Amino acid sequence: MDNYIEQFTYYLKLERGVAENTLVNYLYDLEKLQQFLGSDVDMLHVEETDIRNFIYFIADFLAPSTQARILSSLNHFYNFLILQNVIENNPVTFIELPRQTRKLPVVLSVDEIDLLQSSINFDKDEGLRNDAIIETMYSCGLRVSEVIGIKLSDLYFDEGFIKVMGKGSKQRFVPIASSAVKKINNYIKESRSHLKIKPEAEDILFLNRRGAQLTRAMIFTILKDLTKIAGLTKNVSPHTLRHSFATHLLENGADLRSIQLMLGHESITTTEVYLHLDKQKLKQEVEKFHPWNNK
């Protein structure tokens, strides 16, 4: 069995080009199924009933969204085995995805983002860097993995764009605001240039104090600390700035297709969540200002 999982791993990496985090999730999900079945049961001989029992089991402690992800992982694995002529039927094919309610993402107002940035301590060496990171994330709508991966060679400031490596190693060019360009240049000149940069990080834009590439966890920590200092009660993460970027664009008249391209969403359906946010705001405005609601 280990041999097939190893082949599946190569397939995901080389032919599907999945991101490292996605690959880890796939393998973790397969491990979960094997733990449920027991070490004496071969996953090659699993039937639809076994998968259903597995889903019933994990439904007691995992959210519907996680159940759906696990089913997706298993579906990819068994489809791969069919491609390799190892099995004839996919036991996941006729299993319905668990019903899930779509939670609206947390969004900050422009004033709240300003408050977040005003909480940065510029007396510290990392102040200029953190300011540039937040400005870039909000003005470009980037994922945290995309932010930490930005290279100096990805900056096309004369043209007003940066090159971003998105999910599945897909590149896209994203417009960058002049305010972000200014703050990045300031960080490069006043802060980054004074670091002792590690050889492997020479082309990486945002670095830690030791001259190495920042981690995803570090970006989360930076935002959590600033949120606390700013006194914001919302649950702020790097994705909150991405959601805020898209929502504010939509509120100011940008079309959904343009937002999809800038966010790097493969499907317009993913971007449509921001329509729900926009409708929610309209509903709140009517409830607040319509004269009959004050009766």
TrEMBL record:
Cellular compartments per GO CC: cytoplasm
Family matches, as CDD domains: INT_XerDC_C (cd00798)
Molecular functions per Gene Ontology: DNA binding; tyrosine-based site-specific recombinase activity
Keyword hit for Transmembrane: no
Domain spans labelled Core-binding (CB): 1-82
Locations listed in the record: Cytoplasm
GO biological process: cell division; chromosome segregation; DNA transposition
InterPro entries cross-referenced by the UniProt entry: CB, DNA_brk_join_enz, Integrase-like_cat_sf, Integrase_catalytic, Integrase_recombinase_N, Integrase_SAM-like_N, Recomb_XerD, Tyrosine_recombinase_XerC/XerD
Entry-linked Gene3D superfamilies: 1.10.150.130, Intergrase catalytic core
Keywords: Cell cycle, Cell division, Chromosome partition, Cytoplasm, DNA integration, DNA recombination, DNA-binding
Domain Tyr recombinase: 103-287
Active site: R143, K167, H239, R242, H265, Y274
Function: Site-specific tyrosine recombinase, which acts by catalyzing the cutting and rejoining of the recombining DNA molecules. The XerC-XerD complex is essential to convert dimers of the bacterial chromosome into monomers to permit their segregation at cell division. It also contributes to the segregational stability of plasmids.
Subunit (UniProt): Forms a cyclic heterotetrameric complex composed of two molecules of XerC and two molecules of XerD.
NCBIfam families registered for this protein in UniProt: PRK00283.1 (NF001399), recomb_XerD (TIGR02225)
Entry's family note: Belongs to the 'phage' integrase family. XerC subfamily. Belongs to the 'phage' integrase family. XerD subfamily.
Protein's name according to its UniProt entry: Tyrosine recombinase XerC
Organism: Paenimyroides ummariense
